[in-house]
């Protein structure tokens, strides 16, 4: 397969990789969309490239041992996506998740991983939040040569696509700007995120959403536009768009109302979202929806009368490093914070406030989080 090469924008001199997708070579999700009779389920939210915090969270939940091997037995772990960006450890997290997937399966457990918006962004070449370290890990002795070839191809593309009077000056400053925008390791990074690359194929082996027991797990949420679609159709729709290469802004994959980006289940007032939420719960025969994506101010937070649970607490140190996990078992729903577990309230404002107070007591040395928790408790939501 020919190496994908970037094309320089005539106005901003920015590159956008021309990804060449091989549909026949692409991996596809082959798992189930519903898992029943699971005794213990643990869910963790957005990781954003922070390997150490990811391991800390798994260890706090008793899912890995001191050697970082699976120790969760028959537990089902659900990671709701947003592994990449903000930090440099995407590859390390993917590699470890793949390892414990195999180990858990051998013990009768399961590790579920879900496609999120940042996986899709990297797949399609939207690198706005990519950490410089993500390129550095791909650097080899051949990287300088690849960068040179990339630059030559970009200059050729400009000369082919623009009249000569619109060409930039191809001087040393132009080359330095190019090297800054597309550093060593950039080409290799883009190769890894192709459909048949080690990161891109990982994405295509994941679903958009799945059900374990009576809970639906996904990254963003389901809007009224898509709430009658099956989970399988949601996954196939996103996969097809990713493989098509040119994903429109209003598509299922990129749209604000698509399952990777939608925030309405968390941010829309309860009365306005009630009909949509009930449709989702009834169609999928579940009691609740568990979501990442929308930052929950450092705490695992129930909204919509507990029918929606936010679990993006900012595990990555980029967002504060608030390690947490959600545990679902025969004795109810629990929020894990380090070595402490607090039962989630079933209903009622008083019970919710008591829960928030208990979380606040854990973090009395973090004034910013204290303020955020107070705002959440008093109804001043972001």
Outline the structure in words.
The protein is 37% helix and 14% strand. With 382 residues, it is α/β, with parallel strands linked by helices. The chain has 2 domains: 6-24 and 139-192, no CATH class; 31-115 and 206-350, Purple Acid Phosphatase, chain A, domain 2 (4-Layer Sandwich). The strands form 3 sheets. The protein has a 6-stranded mixed sheet with strand order 3-7-8-9-11-10. Helix 12 (349-362) packs antiparallel against helix 13. Residues 1-24 have low confidence and may be disordered.
Q: CATH fold name of the largest domain, please?
A: Purple Acid Phosphatase, chain A, domain 2
Number of helices: 13
Placed side by side, the strands forming the largest sheet appear as 3-7-8-9-11-10
Helix content: 25-40%
Assign an overall shape. Answer: globular
String of helices and strands: EEEEHEHEHHHHHHEEHHHEEEEEEHH
Instruction: Supply Rg.
Output: 22 Å
Overall strand count: 14
CATH architectural label of the largest domain = 4-Layer Sandwich
Number of domains: 2
Give the C-level CATH assignment of the largest domain: Alpha Beta
Main beta sheet: strand number and arrangement?
6 strands, mixed
Strand content: 5-15%
